[in-house]
Fold this protein.
Amino acid sequence: MNNSFSEILDLIKKSNRILLTGHTSPDGDVVGSGLGLLLGLSDLNKELKKEADEKGEIYLDKTIRFILEDKVPDNLNFLKHSILIEELENYDSKYEFDLMICLDSGNYKRIGKVEQLKSLNTVVINIDHHVSNDNFGDYNYVEYISSTSEIIYNFLNEMKIQLNYGISESLYLGLVNDTGNFRHSNTTSEVFKMASNLVKYGIEPSEIVRNFSNTNSMGRLKIMGKVLSDFKFEDNEKLVYYYMSEKDMVEAGVESDDTGGLGELLLSYEKASVSLFLKESGDFIKGSFRSKYDVDVNKLANNFDGGGHKKAAGFKTEKSVEEILEIVINQMKLN
Ligand SMILES: [Mn+2]
């Protein structure tokens, strides 16, 4: 059961130290929804302070921080306010947070080491759009719409928190990230209405997309070339896949976080229905599924305790590439 936006807002109003966070390896939706909410709540704080001043009441300023385990990737750093996002490693205050808002995270583990900042008295709010979300919060708001950014947009609007350039730019990036720039099936009429409204605040859609997408390093382009020339295809299951070892990454001179979106690239193969991009990561293999038609890849990822959406899901496992492929292909055969 979801809590209402007004219950969540009441909790925010009552809390003085608020921590916003999202999943590790942050994407445009984590950064966009988090920054949009941070800026909205900062304005709310000013508003509450003004109201208290007018009444001659004492007001304790809210501290609102947006902290992620990992650093914000280069292609998301163009946002006007991205400097406000803190990396856990650089965070050294000893606040006791009253409230922690987890964004775009299907389960509590997804926030990684930021979990250390929670104390016994911290209330957790879970705001997310993944079908695999397990309602881990003390308060939950989970809705299966395009993005967490769309939920934050609805929240700010319904709670009458005024948007501005910075909020709009952030939320627009979240939409672009999760709808594949309005290409995926989660692109609804509500999404277009939201986008249209955000543009009224003076943001430049073409500039956002250019900053977000046209930032491939030489290494990343070379690794794309390798993936495109060496991928494998299972004709019966219409499964296209590629396994990238750490050696491949070293040879191409790319970092692990330079490899996002390669599964989607593979899915563009005309005959493919599902793509699986596998990547060695220490003792684990990380997998990323994309689905073009009606194969539910959230279910496929569940085999490895992962999840996400019907058309995009991920997992991390200690199993070998061969074992992973066998499990996936066998399950696809059954369907
Ligand atoms: Mn998302």
The CA atoms of residues 27 and 148 lie 11 Å apart. The longest strand covers residues 274-281. The chain has eleven helices and twelve strands.
